[in-house]
Amino acid sequence: MARKKVQPKFHYHLLKKKWLARHKLAKRKFHKKHKEALDWIIENFPAKEQLAGSAVGMLMLSNLIPTSTVLGSLSQDPVETETVSALDRTNQLLDELNQVVPDKMRTLNGEEEAKISAILSKYFGANVSADVNGLRLNRSYGVIGAEQHLVRFPTDNMATHLDAVDRNNKMIYSSGMAPGRGAWGYFAKSKAEFTEADRQREKWYIAVQTFAAPNYNARLADYRDFFKWRKMLVLNPKTGQAVVADIADAGPAIWTGKHLGGSPEIMYSLGFGQGSRKGGVLYFFIDDIDDKIALGPVKPVSNLNAQ
Amino acid sequence: MLSLTKAERKELESLAHSHVHQAILDTILSHLTDDDKKKFLELVVLGDSDKIWSHLHERVEKIEEKIKDASEQIKKELKEDIAKVKK
After folding, report:
1. Stated pTM of the model
2. A86, A117, A142: which is the final residue of a domain?
3. Which of A24, A126, A181, A182: disulfide with A248, CB 3.0–4.6 Å?
């Protein structure tokens, strides 16, 4: 039987799928094979130096093997090289998390939270924990569901909400805008007062069940200030995809069966951009009293301050 | 001929580069002892190309050939993938 010819429009998807699978397998083997040396370098050198150094290392290797010509049939254009994956410790992180995170969705106990806090703190180089001075959420492992974009200032709308890149992302564009405002109101009083920090806060926001926090009613004043824009590390324990998010809304309702919600950008970055757009995540507070940790996707390669 | 947009091509190139580089690093590390691996990675972090090469030349015979062989193997595999999707 004659083989059906591959449609040109599928070239990209077929190659990407094949190469990602190939790369993932190679990466896993690489980390397993050289675990001791990789752990040693990460523990002994500050993240900033690692990243700068890895770029130099890449240049050194590129000088020997001009990889822009390795794939000559693919392109004649020189391209930027990716940071060496030797420093991406996602596989190691997942190996450690798999030993603690339960297979079935349930509330974590104190011991499990402590272990996971230690793992996340180690891999992301920041103090990550399930509670801060006794203040915490009702859980730290739950089902995240997709939220809509939040209106950032009085005249904000979908026509102007997204930048050019996100406008071309169907999932992010088609999510639409929530009819109401977030838990803290507008991000800025007007378009004129709207800042880049406001833009980032809305882009990487999560909604958490603030109302279900332990002793919420007794510590209302503490909790109100505590949750506002509080940064959390949200991580998909199946893939290792992680995002530094901020709390900007309350929800979802308990009856939904979901435990938190993520902006379209968050869901996309955690690998929940397709299908049911929900799944299990770990969500832990990040100690960032000086507000130095940037919001957005992160990898377990170094410390959050350097990303 | 592959039908790719500029963005698609760039993404695939980035993936291929990453794959080739990882294979090269794997080859280098596989030919070093545990202590020499750490020394090599330390020199990479410090960005001293001359010392990196002298370290490698002292420890591994014909290291350039080994690196080229590894990259050729990856190149061959990736080209086979390209040929398959073109069919």
Report:
1. 0.59
2. A86
3. A182
